[in-house]
Design goal:
Helix content is 22%, strand content 21%. It is α+β, with helices and mostly antiparallel strands. The strands form six sheets. It has a four-stranded antiparallel β-sheet with strand order 3-4-6-10, covered by helices on one side. A three-stranded antiparallel β-sheet has the order 13-14-15, with no helix packed on it. Strand 1 and strand 2 (84-85) form a beta hairpin. The longest helix has 31 residues, at 33-63. It binds calcium ion (3 copies).
């Protein structure tokens, strides 16, 4: 007798819950095709940025420095000039990196939305010799890990940021990186939010006109499609310690300057003597030349830890000394 009540059907509440769950499931299957396509483009762009970053790292492992950005007139090649790059902010040097992919008439590698991928490098000159440290052969090795000062910054907002700082620690995503890669996303042809404008602050000269960054600061944050606060840029970068670690392993970079070296030279003639001492952090050299009117000079090379000394005596005596610190 009492078993009939246990065989009852669903209550109205239970049916309502079932219908609700089915509705949610159907709704999730009915994501508009355009949204699915857009999600696929975002995934494709992220993979593309990763591939380009790997290629740039590979270039650095072979050469010991980063490639310069391409410009609209460099046909996809790294646009280097004496002492640096023709532009700090430009485009992926896809020809130099042998990258495959769709390109435009200026031979610039395009993202899935048809806009050239942006690429920027640090123009820091920590040793003050007038050459950009990260793109000049041998500079990173001379300066060493302890002296390099990459100057590109990625912030979580443009609010409070200056041309060379994020403004506060909690607005700072990176504290100086050697390179940044960047896709303008689907709204590349028109946008107005300050955070997206921070990523493009100028127009390149040359064969085409594409906006590129104008200072050291980039922004990345959550996607948002609210007009005026919209953000769909994709920004990635190479953490300096990742780059340094791999370059050290490859023998292109050392962690700190070597200990100083000593050089001694002795010249003949009347009494020519030269002595040189090279320091690591602060190179010093001393040379002494004997003879009737001896002259001595010396120099030390910080970074390489080498010293050179030269002594000259006027009785045709000359001395040269070279020392290497290790
Ligand atoms: Ca330099
Ligand atoms: Ca955008
Ligand atoms: Ca900027």
């Amino acid at each position: 007798m009492e078993t009939r009540s246990q065989q009852r059907g669903f209550t109205l509440l239970e049916l309502t819950v079932v219908v609700l769950i089915m509705g949610l499931l159907l709704g999730s299957l009915m994501v508009p095709l355009s949204a699915q396509r857009e999600n696929a483009r975002v995934r494709e762009a992220r993979e593309q940025l990763d591939t380009v970053r790997d290629a740039i790292e590979g270039f650095a492992l072979v050469n010991g420095f980063l490639p310069c950005p391409a410009t609209p007139s460099s046909n996809g090649s790294a646009a280097g000039v004496a002492g640096g790059c023709s532009a700090q902010h430009g485009f992926v040097p896809s020809t130099t990196l042998n990258l495959n992919g769709r390109r435009n008439d200026d031979n610039l590698l395009l993202d899935p939305w048809g806009s050239p991928l942006r690429y920027s490098v640090s123009d820091s000159d920590a040793n003050g010799n007038g050459s950009w440290d990260f793109v000049t052969a041998g500079e990173m090795r001379d300066i060493t890990v302890s002296g390099l000062q990459p100057d590109l910054l990625v912030c979580s907002s443009s609010t409070g940021a200056s041309a060379s700082a994020c403004g506060s620690p909690n607005n700072t995503l990176t504290d100086g990186v050697p390179m940044v890669l960047h896709s303008l996303g689907s709204d590349w042809s028109g946008f107005s939010s300050p955070d997206q404008l921070e990523n493009v602050g100028a127009t390149t000269s040359g064969a085409g006109a594409y906006p590129v960054n104008a200072d050291d600061v980039f922004v990345t944050r959550q996607f948002n499609d609210a007009p005026g606060d919209e953000f769909d840029d994709l920004v990635t970068w190479m953490p300096p310690n990742v780059l340094y670690g791999r370059l050290v392993a490859a023998g292109h970079l050392i962690v700190a300057p070597p200990a100083g070296g000593n050089g001694n030279g002795n010249g003949g003639g009347n009494n020519g003597n030269g002595n040189g001492n090279g320091g690591g952090n602060n190179g010093n050299g001393n040379g002494n030349g004997g003879g009737n009117n001896g002259n001595g000079g010396g120099s030390g090379n910080a970074g390489t830890g080498t010293g050179n000394g030269n002594g000259n005596g006027n009785g045709n005596g000359a001395g040269n000394g070279n020392g290497n610190g290790g």
